[in-house]
UniProtKB/TrEMBL annotation:
Possesses an unusual extended V-shaped dimeric structure with each monomer consisting of three distinct domains arranged along a curved 'spinal' alpha-helix. The N-terminal catalytic domain specifically recognizes the glutamate moiety of the substrate. The second domain is the NADPH-binding domain, and the third C-terminal domain is responsible for dimerization. GO terms for biological process: protoporphyrinogen IX biosynthetic process from glutamate. Homodimer. The record marks H100 as: Important for activity. It comes from Aminipila terrae. NCBIfam families: hemA (TIGR01035). This is Glutamyl-tRNA reductase.
Length: 431
């Protein structure tokens, strides 16, 4: 199993270090294509979220080509000195890497234990790699099996989590500080998945919500977007002006640059907020939430006297593994089944060269028989007929042989294939 991964995440690295290795979607596509080509890999997948960046690679069988480890690959792509950040990364290979991915898709390694978003994030990472032609058969099998395992765990095992996303963390913090959120003026910068989730949660609490809408890269038409109910849409370019009068500001974009800079908002936020509720200190503060990596909001804004700024590292962590001990064991039993499935799949791949040899021998034998039989026919297209016969036999024989993986116990695979190989080699079959 020539699968390796390297990753940096919230358990070992602060946000400052994680955002150094973060990628936008466009950046992921560029990176996987460059990594695959530069290091002559069979495949690679790059997972980049708020809490982690992971590079998965499928190496070639030629050991001479496997001289660079995935951490160095990542540093070279990022143009970063590899000697600076190695202590924050973990490298895994083979079954250890697979075990990590299975637990990852269940949210066991997430900052918010058991959270749901990681499944869609892993699925998106696989899809982006596919679009670039970088997801080889081995990585496809590992990621597809992990996603199936995660979906089953989410369906059959019910974790006790206080929070399941950064969006719900945001709501909990606001309720704790302000109590009732009815009519609280809010601005959400970013209309992606996270932005819409926050908007819907705020609106369901009765808040007065505005959300920015970007324009297309070329032209002036607004992007097509499903506008959440009870939400006012405002142009992204007007976001600074929209800060005025808002007590809550949430930013969740994929921008590599700050959406809010200190110099843009310091005059707008220098006076205490007038809520009309009470004169408590909490009601007179502005609440800013930065749910992006790299960060959207200039950290200097958080130093202003009337501003409370949260980033994803200062949010609540939700439920814990200890609180879900019994459910975690149920999940681990399920994951064990999928781990065994992947192990069997990779073990069977050792027999592929022999299977191909058997297929070629059976194909040759069948073609000879077909030519001999066709010579008795009055009319036929020899070239096309031979090609059709050869393709059909190879497909049928491959289906038969690969089916042994499901029909036979693993301990019989080698014995069975050796017997089939000897049978296919018999000279008498060609006469």
């Amino acid at each position: 199993m020539r699968i390796k991964m390297v990753g940096i995440d919230h358990s070992k690295a602060s946000l400052d270090y994680r955002e150094t290795f973060s990628f936008t979607k466009a950046g992921v596509k560029e990176a996987v294509k460059e990594i695959k080509e530069r290091f002559r890999l069979k495949g690679c997948i790059l997972l980049s979220t708020c809490n982690r960046t992971e590079l998965w690679i499928s190496q070639c069988d030629n050991k001479k080509l496997n001289t660079v480890n995935p951490y160095d690959m990542l540093c070279q792509i990022k143009k970063i000195d590899a000697s600076l950040y190695g202590e924050y990364f973990v490298e895994r290979d083979g079954s250890q890497a697979v075990d990590h991915l299975l637990k990852l898709v269940c949210g066991f390694d997430s900052k918010i234990f058991g959270e749901d978003q990681i499944i869609s994030q892993v699925r998106e990472a696989l899809q982006l790699s596919r679009e670039c032609g970088c997801a080889d058969m081995a990585l496809e099998k590992v990621f597809q099996t992990a996603l199936a395992a995660g979906k089953r765990v989410k369906t059959e095992v019910h974790m006790c989590t206080v929070n399941r996303s950064s969006a719900s963390d945001t709501i909990d913090i606001l309720k704790s500080a302000l109590g009732d959120l009815k009519e609280v003026p809010c601005l959400v910068i970013g209309n992606g998945q996270m932005g819409k989730l926050v908007v819907n949660m705020l609106a369901s609490c009765g808040a007065s919500v505005s959300m920015t809408l970007r324009r297309k890269m070329h032209g002036n038409d607004e992007q097509e977007s499903i506008v959440p109910e009870k939400c006012q849409m405002v142009p992204y370019d007007d976001r600074i002006a929209q800060v005025s009068g808002k007590q809550v500001i949430v930013s969740a974009t994929l921008s590599p640059h700050y959406t809010l800079r200190l110099e843009d908002v310091k005059e707008l936020l220098k006076q205490p907020y007038i809520s009309g509720k009470t004169d408590s200190e909490a009601d007179r503060k502005y609440y800013l939430f930065d749910l992006a990596v790299p960060r959207d909001i200039d950290p200097e804004i958080g130093k202003m006297p009337h501003v409370k700024l949260y980033d994803i590292d200062s949010m609540n962590s939700g439920g814990t593994r200890e609180e879900n001990e019994e459910q975690v064991q149920l999940a681990m039993d399920i994951l064990g089944e999928y781990q065994e499935e992947i192990n069997r799949w990779f073990e069977f791949r050792h027999y592929i060269p022999k299977i191909k040899e058997i297929v070629d021998m059976v194909s040759e034998d069948t073609v000879q028989r077909f030519i001999s039989k066709s010579s008795e026919m009055e009319e036929y297209d020899s070239e096309n007929s031979v090609e059709a016969a050869e393709a059909s036999v190879k497909k049928a024989t491959s289906k038969l042989l690969y089916g042994l993986r499901e029909q036979l116990p693993q301990e019989l695979w080698e014995e069975c294939l050796e017997a089939l190989h000897r049978s296919a080699s018999r000279e008498t079959l060609k006469h």
